[in-house]
Predict the 3D structure of the following.
Amino acid sequence: MLEPTPTFDPDLPRRYADFDTLPEALDYAAKGQRGLNFYSPRGELETSITYTKIRKRALEIGRRLVHFGIEKSSRVALIAETSEDFVCYFLGCQYAGMLPVPLPLPTSFGGREGYTEQLQQQMRSCKASVALSAAYMLPLLDEATNGLDMLFVGTPDTFEAQASKTDIKNITLPKASPDDLAYLQYSSGSTRFPHGVAVSQKSLMSNSYGIGQIGMEVADNDRAVSWLPFYHDMGLVGMLISPIAFQVSIDYLATEAFARRPMQWLKLISKNKGTMCSAPTFGYEICARRAN
């Protein structure tokens, strides 16, 4: 029976985001037993993966990116699903010295044309050379990248089929430095067209320290539970990167699953004794209305 990664890990002393880079933070978290857990809309555990396994796959992805001939600092557009693939490719880019660019999933606003137009403008503005998504999103991604100069557009499976593990085993990965850029983050676009912001490794670790040590005062019994999308900083930094930097296990519901069944978030918090559960005001309002 599949079990979630543990909250407690007595064998790994807690470190409080005192790392120079995100790869260094993951290297340390991978020495322990904690990790990420992805739940279905009905609150059933579908995937449980330790930071050890995440690091192993991220390193492999990093070597594949280098083997493919993608240059350091190139932009890699990632449709930000709440999934193991997104997490591992985002972190794989860190090891490869490339800049992941989390991009949104479709919403009910603007329709297909508005969504693909936004994606295309974002990929053009950041000069993405690679774009990856789940298979069901591929028709939209193909439409959004039409006319752009891309090295690769496809799914993780088709990308990973480009080379065997033997082909990539001797690839040397660059070492990240604090002044390197870690990723590009687009604003939500609620008040204007989404604006891209470049985030450095140093700034990212400083932000994580502020969230976990100063803001939340992370302790050994802490566990994160989130439905926040990875293409917003509250979900990406607050509920993925910071927990990695503090070696915290995380339980995830997809954003669309929360929208349909918001009470599952509260049930998951109760079931797994979650303590780190950030959300914008409307998230709590939705839960309060459903509870009544």
Observations:
- Residues 76 and 130 are 5 Å apart (CA to CA).
- Strands lie at 35-39, 45-50, 75-79, 99-103, 128-132, 152-154, 181-186, 196-200, 224-226, 250-253.
- Residues 22-291 form a domain with the Rossmann fold fold (CATH 3.40.50.12780).
- The chain has twelve helices and ten strands.
